[in-house]
Amino acid sequence: MIQVLEMKQNNTLYIYALIVLSICLGTIEVLFNLQGKEVSESTQSIWSVVFFLLSILWAYYDADRRDFEKPFDFGLLVYVFWPIAFPWYLVKTRGAEGVLVALGFVSIWLGPWIAGLLAYVVFERKRLNPKKNNNLYTVQWTKDYNAC
After folding, report:
1. How many Cβ atoms from other residues are within 10 Å of residue 145's Cβ?
2. What is the DSSP string of 68-131?
3. CB of 57 within 8 A of CB of 50?
4. Is residue 147 scored above 70 in pLDDT?
């Protein structure tokens, strides 16, 4: 009984950890992009590795919780073939709802990058065009026009 409760807690713990880490990295991305800086490649790589490991651990414990007959090397297979095996597992265990769960995982993974991209676009628009003109190319065109 205690072991089953521990598995359920571990399963949700991985989801919460992914969400919290995604929000933290998204905040860092936004703050850096508002200052005109970029988050380092190593930070992005670490996020990808942590995301994949936590999602694989989640799938492993979720398979136990759902009494899914998993092969002996299920964790390795999901790790090596993540883009194929992870969505397959979600669809196999949840049906059509598995597609939505897979999209949720992808949005957790890409969320920080999208937040940083949006902050960069807003920051660059304000920096390039302080008069709040909606045309991004106005500043560049007027500079080229005046140079002639």
Report:
1. 8
2. ----TTHHHHHHHTHHHHHHHHHHHHHTTHHHHHHHHHHHHHHHHHHHHHHHHHHHHHHHH-TT
3. no
4. no
Rg (CA), the chain: 21
Label residue 115 by pLDDT band (50, 70, 90).
very high
Q: Looking at the chain, how many residues does it have? A: 148
pLDDT for 51-95, tens place per residue?
A: 999 998 888 888 878 777 777 777 778 778 888 888 888 898 889
Using alpha carbons only, what angle is made at residue 103 by residues 45 and 15, rounded to the nearest 5 degrees? 65
**16 to each of 52, 73, 80, 97, 98, how far by Cα in Å?**
14, 25, 24, 20, 19
Write b or e for each residue in 105-141: b if 16 or more Cβ atoms lie within 10 A of its Cβ, otherwise e.
beebbebbbebbeebbeeeeeeeebeeeeeeeeeeee
CA torsion sign for 81, 111, 51, 36 is positive
**Measured between alpha carbons, how far is 104 from 107 in angstroms, rounded to an integer?**
5
Give the pair of three-digit tokens for residue 119: 């902050």
